[in-house]
Every structure is written in C-alpha cells, then in structure tokens.
Design a protein that fits this description.
single chain, 330 residues, BirA Bifunctional Protein, domain 2, three-stranded antiparallel sheet, 39% helix, rod-shaped, binds adenosine-5'-[phenylalaninyl-phosphate]
Amino acid sequence: MTDKIKALEAEVAAYLITDAATREAFRLKFLAKKGEIMPLFDEFKSLPNEEKRVVGALLNKLKTAAEERFKSSESLSAKAESVDGFDFSRPAVSSFSGSLHPLNQVRSQLIDVFSRLGFEIATGPEIEDDWHNFTALNMPEDHPARDMQDTFFVQTDPAVVLRTHTSPVQIRTMLAQQPPIRIIAPGRVYRCDSDATHSPVFHQIEGLYIAKDVSFADLKQVLFTFVKEIFGEGLGIRFRPSFFPFTEPSAEMDIEWIKNGESSWMEILGCGMIDPNVLRNCGIDPEEYSGYAFGLGVERIAMLKYGIRDIRLFYENDVRFLSQFESGTV
Ligand code: FA5
C-alpha cells in the first residue's frame, strides 16, 4: 500500500491542470468518493495496528497534496469561466512580426555603405520633364542614345516622362549647389522593359562626386569598396568600356554569378567621368572641376546577393518567398 500511495503522490504532482475540464478530471480521479484516494481509507481500516501509524500519515499527506493542488488551480478555472467563456489558460497564439522587403534591406545596406564614404542623400521627382531626364544629360531630342532607355511618356504632354533613371537628380543637384558635391540619389525608375532580369519599375541609386582633380581611379576605388562591403572579398568583377552621353569615358561594371550551372556576368551599374557639356549645362566650369557618376540597379544587386534568378519574384508579394528574408525585421 505504501508503494501505491507514493505512486499516486507522484501522479498528483505531475498532473497537468490547464483549464476547467482538466481540473474537473483531476477532481474525479483523485478527490471523488470513488476516485483513487478515498477507497484507500477503507483499505487502511483493515491494516494491522502497527502499520496504521505510518500508512495513515502517508495517506493523509497524499490527500492534503491532492486537495492543495486542486485548490491552487481554483483561480485559473474561476477566471476562465468568468469572462464570457474566454479561456485564459489556452496557449497564446504566436504573434506575427513583419520584416523589411528584401529590396529595402539591400537599399538600406547600400545607403549605409555610401553614407560611410561621405555621400549625402539627394532626391528628385519620379515624374520628370524631358529636359532633366535627357537634354541636360547631353541627349538632345532625336539623339539615338535616347533609344537605350525605353521610355514611358505621358501622351497628353510629351515633355513629361516617368524618369528612366536617377541621373536627372545629378542635374537638379548641380543646379542647386556648387562643388564640392558628393551625393547618392536612391529612387524608383520606369522603363518599358520586362523579362527575368528587367522590370518596368525598378530601383536605382545614383552617385555623383564633383570636386577639383577627381579621377577615374577615385571612381574605381569607391566602387571596389562598395562591392567588398556588400558581397565580401573574392568576387569576380569586371569593367567594360561603354557609352553614356553624359559621361566620358564611360564603363559598365559586371559581377560574376552562376547561371544554369555556368559562370556568367551580370551588369550591375553604369558609370564614368561627367561629360564637360553636362557640367556646363549646370553652370559648373569643367576647366576647374571634374567629377564622376554612377547609377546602380538595386534589384540586380539583390539578385546576386541572394541568388535570385527572376526579378519578378520581388514584386509578386508571395509570402513563401518574402519570409525567407525575415532576418531584416522592422
Ligand atoms: C543608366 O541608367 C545610367 N543612368 C547609369 C549611369 C549613371 C551611367 C551615371 C553613368 C553615370 P543603365 O541603363 O545601364 O544606365 O542602367 C543602370 C543599371 O540599372 C543597370 O546596370 C542595371 O543594373 C539596372 N537596370 C537597367 N534596366 C533595368 C531594368 N529594366 N530592370 C532592372 N534593373 C535595370
């Protein structure tokens, strides 16, 4: 009988009372007349007198423990039943915490890197005029270079464009302040363009530095630093000679990535030394000042960083895709 009492004592201690129902089950099992404990008192009566003292003490201890367990859960059960049947003892529903979109995470990282290099943030309108988006950037009307950027014009007013790049912010900044100028301009841009690596709405970050004696070597140093900060060491990088009407010389920078199991290159930015005509258009003397500019694609950098093959995944808002980037919480 002693063993049975000890086993019941352990059971009472381990019994999980979580709500009114389990509390009632506890009462029936241990405290009811026909439960597990009360009948032991009948058995107790037939024990020899010499055992009665020890077993009696154990039995009383067991009964008290069960009663205390039951009593201590009273408030839980009372509360649960008192407020409109709401069960306070139910496990909580885990809360959902949002996270930054992967493009915003990469954008913030890029802004952080360039801020540490001394660049300040500048902004400009997404609905631009033809002059800031093209003409001031050395692309007069009918210049074939305009064809490189498939433009959304506004039908009722051909002088209005959805900006095709962030380069018009260069013009707005140069018109508003004198050198030295060191800015980045993050923002949305629009082109009539769509496939796995091109989106009609995408994001660029423009960089502009104008001072005395700025050289192409300064530009390369800043771009190498940004690649190292974002991707780490050891990544394949190449500069290709290119053409932009607003820079001379011009280049494009590609980063190595694996496409269909084979090493390939992805273009991430265009850059170059500011063309003297552009400086003149903004009232800056090209004999006194020189500068560089670059325009990088945020989506392309995010694709390389996370190994994403199709740019359209960024805009579909599929939670299965987005939840993979939860580390960058809000
Ligand atoms: C330009 O837009 C120039 N304004 C960049 C520049 C700035 C050159 C300053 C010189 C000086 P480009 O069209 O190559 O250049 O675009 C720049 C980057 O934007 C590309 O390298 C690419 O990363 C990204 N990009 C271009 N088109 C798309 C698109 N449709 N979808 C996603 N990313 C794009």
